[in-house]
Amino acid sequence: MTTGSLRQRNNGNKQKVYQNVSPTTNGATTNLQSKLANISAELQHATQASTHRLWTRAVIAASVMIVVYFYSQQHNSNETKFALIKEKLPLRIQKFECSKSYKAEIRRFPNCVPKKCGRFVSDQLVEEDEVDKLLNLARTILSMAGSSGGASILNLHTGALSYKEQFVNAYRVPKVVAELKEHHLTVYNTVKNKIKKAIAEQFGIPAESLYLTDPTFFSRLTNATARTMNDEYWHEHVDKDTYESFHYTSLLYLNTYQKDYKGGRFIFIDGSNGNLTKSAIEPKKARVSAFTSGAENLHHVEQVTEGERYAITISFTCDPDRAISDLHIKTPNL
Ligand SMILES: O=C(O)CCC(=O)C(=O)O
Ligand SMILES: [Fe+2]
């Protein structure tokens, strides 16, 4: 057998095959064509149906994901919102039992024992123009000094002012002293008295049993990397442990979460092991938050991620020996 004869035979086969598929007018071919057309139509239909199914599934999956996302935002790990920025609260108050340690300690000052422990927020205690004056003062002075990390303070009672990685005495810095005007101190004292009165009313004690205590200070928080322990403002704590003399803590917020800075919410941590819940306060200009300073009010501040957060921590004690006097322009505590 030669390669030539092979080629010939193959050609013959090819021709046969071609003949079978080439269009002719006989009935069998027409039948096949129409079957093929049907199959193709069915295939097209099936493809369209499966594309449609895929789209439907994708839309359902996306909707479920969106619902889950928003739900988790709203109900973020057992978190409730105690005060939102969009709210203007005359008064929101929550009362509960005092912690054992707080109860035991405050018993030393019978006039000062709250009917119940708790916390409240009010957006109507302090005027916006009072806050403007205090904010301007804090901004001006802290822009002359300030920590190189994320937390700077100005304590007008002791003069402590953050400067890089330490504190200086603000009353020994002439350009700082030049900024401090009588009207600042008047506003500061007025605001402090309003808050003290509100605490006394809400916790059912006479205002005369409450004394301003140290530290009472302006704070500016940013996202700068911490350089010292003082910069690490975000740790959970109990004020009574951090600042021994405190019995009632208050905070006056000088600017607004989301508008002036991101992060920096104040979070109470409630409950016990295994069943912790968070209760969030969104700081807002002129918002006052106040609470009993014991273990019943464990809390922390979330890290600021953008901008500058300004507040004043105004603290009260029931112990006359731990009282500090009101601010007077001529009597800085040197
Ligand atoms: O600035 C705040 O919102 C709270 C600060 C704080 O917890 C504190 O000074 O003990
Ligand atoms: Fe605190």
Give an account of the 3D structure.
The protein is α+β, with helices and mostly antiparallel strands and 334 residues long. The chain folds into 2 domains: 3-58; 80-322, q2cbj1_9rhob like domain (Jelly Rolls). It contains 7 helices and 17 strands. It has helices spanning 3-21, 27-74, 100-106, 128-144, 174-179, 182-203, 239-242, and strands at 79-83, 92-96, 117-122, 146-147, 151-154, 160-164, 166-169, 211-212, 217-221, 248-253, 261-263, 266-272, 275-281, 288-292, 299-301, 304-307, 309-317. The strands form 4 sheets. Strands 2, 3, 5, 8, 9, 10, 14 and 17 form an 8-stranded antiparallel sheet that branches. A 4-stranded mixed sheet has the order 1-13-12-15, with no helix packed on it. A hairpin with a 2-residue loop joins strand 12 and strand 13 (275-281). Helix 4 packs across helix 6 (182-203). It is elongated, with a radius of gyration of 36 Å. The termini are far apart. The model is unreliable at 1-25 (pLDDT under 50). Residues 219, 239, 242, 251, 266, 299, 301, 311, 313 line the site of 2-oxoglutaric acid (AKG). Residues 216-320 form the Fe2OG dioxygenase domain. It holds the Pfam family 2OG-FeII_Oxy_3.
Total number of helical segments?
7
- Strand-residue fraction? 15-25%
Distance between the first and last residues' Cα: 121 Å
Count the beta strands. Answer: 17
Major beta-sheet overview: 8 strands, antiparallel
The total tally of domains equals 2
As for the CATH topology of the largest domain, it is Jelly Rolls
Low-confidence parts:
1-25
CATH C-level class of the largest domain is Mainly Beta
* Heterogens: 2-oxoglutaric acid, fe (ii) ion
Question: Whole-number average pLDDT?
Answer: 87
**N-to-C SSE string, H for helix and E for strand:** HHEEHEHEEEEHHEEHEEEEEEEE
Radius of gyration (CA) equals 36 Å
The residue fraction in helices comes out at 25-40%
Task: Identify the CATH architecture of the largest domain.
Answer: Sandwich
Q: Structural class of the secondary elements?
A: alpha+beta
CATH superfamily of the largest domain: q2cbj1_9rhob like domain
What characteristic shape results from the CA principal axes? Answer: elongated
